[in-house]
């Protein structure tokens, strides 16, 4: 048993970040009777979903501090039924966008409603940036405490001491850029998808998009309407040639699939590694994001190494600093809100003393075993926190750590069919889907209104979810 056994009731907990993860953490911590303060750098709650028209203008490769990476036209890529929290469904609201995959502003409305319903706003300090988190002198019983230094708007920095800190700062804000020969000398426009908002300024241009995951494809589809040519560059053109990509290429003459960019030339040429080239006006990097915790001082006890945050026991607790330091929302390639709720409940139960953690040595051993297993499976370090939508793992995780109920079968089927539809046709899957009986019954039983009538499909497809599940390959799916 670790230090988690000490009496945590009425202890002060600081949650950093008021995105979906930080907000659900605040709710769970309060439910366990803890005294919660949420510090949020933005002027509102919502995190990524607080759309920001600013684009890191002076620094289009994206290091200038804008948090949200949403572009103006973005619609959710996961069904609203599964973006919900376990006891707070993201039901369509009258007057809003009632579609299954609504526009991003709809999710922001839902998040604000979540705050209102659970009375969270009085715990949240907006416009407050955390600039330093470091170990404070310990309490008399030896347990760790944390000094949190923050800055409210233009005010002087202030310091407070907390018994625990929950880091929920998200990980889709710091661009992960490839290293391409000539990038530093290329004088035309280069930006990361983090800084892409609207297509207008690309009208008539030749654009190269590096990266063919969801963002790359969606930005390409938006740009091809106004641009002269759009070239999508993939690590492997064979792997990139999914049914969805084939359809995109067949539909639009000005959309092209290209291999890896080999180098950029000062005269505007973008040379691909098969020797072909285009003269481009802009390069957009849709190449993902890095984890970053610039405020955290742990004397090397928590590091970020090639996107591995660690060591973190079950992606949450750094063994030598647990339970007073924890992270919620680290995993990627899953539908986060519910999993962040699971992690939050676990953290809250540990901090309130209802659950204990293994010893630091055991936690460290578990982290090492987990990393070894990932490596043995051939996964690179930067994918340490990718869960590849392993819903069974998520269920077991929740049951094991905090008695969280398993996800209902109809929701799982909805996730599988959504991913399968997306892989089949990324342009139409949001508005052209056919629910199985299991999904239809599940929705009805859980109070979801009937889905709006949908346009007939261009081609016949059966609705056998079993077939879809078999065809679904977790290692290949793309999800942010
Ligand atoms: C383009 C895009 C599309 C996406 N689409 C989907 C989708 O369709 N479905 C889906 O489920 N997920 C989607 N996601 C993933 C989405 O980010 C997560 O669902 C979820 O919003 C992450 O919540 P979070 O609270 O972990 O992080 P965030 O939403 O990023 O919130 C972190 C919060 O921490 C604050 N913060 C950061 N640093 C500090 C600091 N030093 N001091 C104080 N505050 C700080 C930030 O301002 C922010 O409010 C998408 C992501 C992107 C980028």
From TrEMBL:
Residues passing through the membrane, by range: none
EC number of this enzyme: 1.-.-.-
Swiss-Prot/TrEMBL cofactor(s): FAD
Protein name: Flavin-containing monooxygenase
Chain intervals for the UniProt region annotation (Disordered): 441-480
UniProt entry tagged with the keyword Flavoprotein: yes
SUPFAM superfamilies noted in UniProt: FAD/NAD(P)-binding domain
GO molecular function, one term: flavin adenine dinucleotide binding
InterPro entries from the UniProt entry: FAD/NAD-bd_sf (IPR036188), Flavin_mOase (IPR000960), Flavin_mOase-like (IPR020946), FMO-like (IPR050346)
Family under the similarity heading: Belongs to the FMO family.
Protein keywords: FAD, Flavoprotein, Monooxygenase, NADP, Oxidoreductase
Domain of life: Eukaryota
């Amino acid at each position: 048993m670790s230090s988690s056994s000490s009496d945590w009731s009425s202890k002060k907990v600081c949650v950093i970040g008021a995105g979906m993860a930080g907000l659900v953490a605040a709710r769970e911590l309060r439910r366990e009777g803890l005294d919660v303060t949420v510090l949020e750098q933005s002027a509102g709650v919502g995190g990524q979903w607080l759309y920001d028209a600013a684009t890191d203008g002076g620094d289009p490769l994206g290091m200038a501090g804008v948090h949200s990476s949403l572009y103006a036209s973005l619609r959710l890529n996961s069904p609203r039924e599964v973006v919900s929290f376990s006891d707070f469904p993201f039901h369509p609201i009258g007057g809003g966008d009632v579609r299954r995959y609504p526009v991003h502003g709809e999710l922001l409305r839902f998040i604000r409603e979540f705050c209102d319903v659970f009375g969270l706003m009085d715990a949240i300090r907006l416009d407050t940036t955390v600039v330093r988190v470091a170990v404070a002198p310990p309490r008399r019983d030896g347990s760790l405490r944390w000094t949190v230094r923050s800055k409210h708007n233009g005010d002087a920095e202030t310091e407070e001491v907390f018994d625990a800190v929950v880091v929920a700062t998200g990980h889709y804000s710091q661009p992960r850029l490839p290293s391409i020969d000539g990038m530093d000398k290329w004088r035309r426009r280069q930006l990361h998808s983090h800084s892409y908002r609207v297509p207008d300024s690309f009208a008539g241009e030749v654009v190269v998009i590096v990266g063919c995951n969801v963002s790359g494809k969606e930005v390409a589809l938006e740009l091809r309407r106004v641009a002269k040519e759009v070239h999508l560059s993939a690590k492997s053109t064979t792997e990139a040639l999914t049914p969805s990509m084939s359809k995109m290429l067949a539909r639009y003459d000005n959309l092209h699939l290209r291999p890896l960019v080999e180098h950029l030339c000062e005269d505007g040429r973008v040379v691909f590694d098969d020797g072909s080239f285009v003269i481009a006006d802009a390069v957009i990097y849709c190449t993902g994001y890095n984890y970053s915790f610039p405020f955290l001082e742990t004397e090397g006890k928590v590091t970020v190494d090639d996107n591995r945050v660690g060591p973190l026991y079950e992606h949450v607790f750094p063994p030598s600093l647990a339970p007073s330091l924890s992270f919620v929302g680290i995993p990627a390639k899953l539908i986060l809100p519910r999993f962040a709720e699971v992690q939050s409940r676990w953290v809250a139960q540990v901090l309130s003393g209802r659950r204990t953690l293994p010893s630091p040595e055991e936690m460290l051993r578990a982290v090492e075993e987990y990393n070894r297993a990932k490596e043995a499976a051939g996964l690179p370090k930067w994918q340490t926190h990718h869960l590849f939508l392993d819903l069974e793992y998520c269920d077991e995780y929740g049951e094991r750590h905090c008695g969280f109920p398993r996800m209902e079968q109809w929701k799982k089927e909805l996730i599988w069919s959504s991913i399968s539809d997306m892989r089949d046709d990324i342009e139409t899957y949001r508005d052209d889907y056919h629910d199985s009986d299991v999904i239809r019954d599940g929705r009805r039983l859980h109070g979801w209104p009937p889905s709006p009538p949908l346009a007939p499909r261009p081609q016949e497809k059966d609705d056998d979810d079993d077939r879809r599940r078999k065809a679904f390959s977790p290692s290949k799916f793309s999800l942010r």
